[in-house]
User: Fold Cysteine desulfurase from Microbacterium invictum.
Amino acid sequence: MNTVTSRVREDFPFRDAHPDRAYLDSAATSQRPRQVIDAEAAFVATDYAAVHRGSSMATGAATLAFENARARVAAFVGAAHDEIVWTENATDAINMVALGMSDAALGLGGADARARFGLGPGDEIVVTEAEHHANLLPWQRLAARTGATLRWVAVDDAGLWSIDDLAAVITARTRVVAFAHVSNVTGYVAPVGDVVALARGVGALTLLDACQSVPHHPVDLTALGVDFAAFSAHKMLGPTGIGALWGRKELLDLLPPARTGGSTITTVTMESAEFLPAPNRFEAGTQPVSQAVGFAAASDYLREIGMPAVAAHEHEMTGLLVDAVAATPGVRLVGVPAGSERGPLVSFIVDGVHAHDVGQFLDDRGITVRTGHHCAQPLHRRLGVAATTRASAYVYTDAADVARFSAALAEVRPFFGADR
Ligand code: PMP
Assistant:
């Protein structure tokens, strides 16, 4: 057992609760260590109160914990404290940017916001054909609302795209480029620096869907040079119900808040409102206080292991998963070819067996994987399949999990008679 697995194994109660189960679905959502569960529970038990409201001692202590959590998550991704906006999840964060931009087009944030964010007919939004629906549908909406055109980088037969493909789609009219750092289906790792350079060259804003990168390897959002980024706590050992929108401060302070209400304002009259600077302008209503505490505990936990160690461990486990898929007759790897850099997930097609049957078969043998289109229907349509099966690794995945997966995978085609 390598150092990461031996160290973290006992931290995860789910492993003891299900000793005979290999959980290979961390790309969908991750399990939580006791440190995260305990941090949130302890806060709820003793320190919970509404934040940023009132003047009681309880409110002050909860607000301190809430803002301290923001500072720790910010530091985890190389961001300043007030550049992290709590959202419901990554989907919510991306919607916040797209909706804010359509409000800017309506003039809701004033002339400066309209000039920076206000798209209109003739303007172009660029995504890739491999995006998760979370990073596609908000841009479809923005295009529909503003009259801008949605363009996309087509993927190849393996579901991959290159910087040259992107360069061919970007024009002087491109205003936004939105793309995943790591694809949740193909495992493709985007050339972020090159994308940023192309986008900046035409004055376009960039939004990075960092859902599958921030949990798995060191990410410094400021150094990457993107303008906005989105990620979710539940994919990085934290709670559900909270995610983060990161943005460069001057952009966040200018972007109109998509949702309005309590806690977001400086002055309100019966006719109008003045909004606070970021992050508060975006956090309307009662905030996800204990979830923020859990999110920060998750980032502390990962920081203590060390993100380079997390990445190295996952690299090793992913290599084993790829080997298992490559070694099984009639099973085809989707996306990044074996041996190339990829995120810690492996999607595959079992010839002659529907992905849902594959998933059911593996589940019966104690292996949790994900089947379906993984919220990436256009990509699956391009690949010519309705569904794939995906196995994914995280800090608590060990070689025994992969061995169990490998043995069961070898049985799938014989079981369904697809090898005859
Ligand atoms: N983008 C990618 C690449 C994802 O993998 C996911 C989650 N499957 C999302 C966006 C959406 O994340 P959430 O459901 O937490 O908003």
About this structure: Residues 28, 89-91, 132, 134-135, 180, 184, 209, 211-212, 232, 243, 375 surround 4'-deoxy-4'-aminopyridoxal-5'-phosphate (CB under 6 Å).
